[in-house]
Amino acid sequence: MTGVYAWLLLMPATILLAAFTHYPTIATFVQSLFSNKTVFRPSRFVGLDNYRAIFDDPVFFKVMQNTLLFALGTVPLSIILALLMAIWVNKHIPGRGFVRLAYFTPTILPMIAVANIWLFFYTPDIGLLDQLSALFGGQGHNWLGDSRTVLGCLMVMTIWKEAGFFMIFYLAALQTHPPELEEAARLEGASRITFFWRVTFPLLMPTTLFVFINALLNSFKLVDHLFILTKGGPDNASNLLLYYIYENAFSFFDTANAATLTVVLLALLATLAILQFTILDKRIHYR
């Protein structure tokens, strides 16, 4: 009878998980093995032809390169900035509550609102960046229309948006550290830098792993800002994987290609999850 009650309690979550996670994943994989269905041509089984097609597509490699560069540019800087902010607001400074609120405020803003705010910064000639540049004799620049600067602009906006969120986790972790550790280190004559690298940072490694995984997953999932700022342009210079999937599915109506790209994205995320639970988690958490 206890087993029946346990299954009844698990049933709602199991049904929702199967309906909205497992079934769509399996259906997407199956769809990636078939061609597009049109009015004049029914869908037919093509095996791995869709996968061969995307690996022969130069746009796909450009998108993957953008996504990897975006992750490499945003994840480490977001973590470093979040850690520095957490250490700063953890001290007894004047207006500490206001500073914490200021750091956290970008986190609660919707991504569409954030994109519109930064659109004002990046607008050529009349935007804030060009207005400040003009004060020093600089020329106007189309930040989002230049393939050399557009991805960096998106990285800056993302770091500004996410660092405050990750700061909360570091701040919570810092507040669990017993003050006796710092007192003992001070008695031993250890400097603040030595105390941070030998004591504080190692104790923050589990939190760093958690933040790292979340930041990495977010870098693959961010898509909202592209609708407002660039739509993947110019010449796919800012096109990221999730937005490319959206384009194939709802702009080009190439559902087979979109399903194939989705499977690739799921494979990347699954690899990250396996890496976390099999390697990183065992190396970082103390036993």
Characterization of the model:
The chain has 287 residues and is mostly helical. The chain has one domain: MetI-like (MetI-like fold, Orthogonal Bundle), CATH 1.10.3720.10. The chain has 13 helices and no strands. Helix 2 crosses helix 13, helix 3 packs parallel to helix 7 and helix 12 packs antiparallel against helix 13 (255-284). The two termini are 37 Å apart. The mean pLDDT is 86.
State the main characteristics.
single chain, 287 residues, mainly alpha, MetI-like fold, 13 helices, 74% helix
What can be said about this structure in brief?
With 287 residues, this protein is mostly helical. The protein has helices at 2-31, 49-55, 58-89, 96-108, 111-122, 128-135, 150-174, 179-187, 192-203, 205-221, 224-229, 241-251, 255-284. The protein has a single domain (59-284), classed as MetI-like fold.
